[in-house]
Amino acid sequence: MLYFSFLHSFSYCSVAHIGLILSLRIVSMETTKKSTFKVLFYLKKNAPKKNGKVTVMCRITVNGNQSAFSTKLDISASNWDLKYGRVLGKSREAQDVNGKLDKIRLGIEECYSKILKNEGAVNSTKLKNAFLGMESGEMTFFKFYEQFLSDYEKKVNSGLRVNGTRSKYKTLLRHLRNFVLTKYGYSDVSFNDLTPDFVQDFDYYLRDDQSLTHNTIWLYMIGFTTLCRLAMSRKHLAFNPFSEYKNTKKDKDRGYLLRNELEQLVTFNCEKKKDELVKDLFVFSCFTGLSYSDMKGLRNSNIQDFFDSNQWIIIRRKKTATSSNVMLLDIPKMIIEKYAGFSKDGKVFPVPSNTVCNDSLKRISQQIECLKEKKVTFHLARHSILSFRLQISRLQEIFS
Hints:
3-stranded antiparallel β-sheet, elongated, hpI Integrase, Chain A
């Protein structure tokens, strides 16, 4: 009886224990179902490259939510095994690409296990960023760029830098973000992603996708180079991604006004006072060589009497911060006297915005026969070749 009683008790405990194990296993299975994780490689067929190859993309799925990024591997679409997400064949190229895909998969799985262990929960975006080295606490290139812009804005506010250059840096950042999102599917990039191939592909993107001119691209690349050099000096970037990139500025004929064209512009009577002001500022720039930004910041204190009994403009160029000394001739003196007292804060001229100036010049040039076919902008004034054998006495009449 005791034996059977023991067996009965043992059977009851065993059944209860087995039931508990099965219950835990079911819960575990249910938890696993709720936390699905999958890595899939596929081709970005909607954006083939010029050589006919397409980019291999990686899609991470966690609990039904997806995040994708480019593997930076390009293959021929005909060699792709859609079922297994690998390159067909045993060629050296196939083995190389498949080996890299295996490393990517293994790296993502390791990141998944690490995040799950440390934080207890994973999402696709966090996993992608962790694999790409872009965790929230780590410095990325775009975070670095945003900090650079913030510091640059402080310099603009203090007068050390100009707002126009800051605008160019902001436009460059917008192009870089669009490029990274279009080509790689990233919202940010690590410094390790900045390679010679990245730089060259960005150049192609600006040329082919954005249809920018050669000199505009050259200008943006100078800004990009500046950022990379700064990142290298602060030990964020280990090498120069521009080491293989070559680009030079193409000489461009900006045009200029001829003697008769300038004479007709000077003697033209404007109906609107605003147009007359812009015309006088343009003529002043022709005779002094000052740029729009330099004229806008020109103060009465910049005009000084020298030992040679002549008046000189003594300024530091806004764009280059270099010293510039210009002797005032009669016509520039007349223009200064004409607008004396019109401006505030010690400024020499009440200079309108660059857009307003160019609109006025366009309106004026359309009324002068010899200028109708010429694009007259404020920038054109500095490139106009002046011979001081012009009929100055005739030009002075409108200012007398």
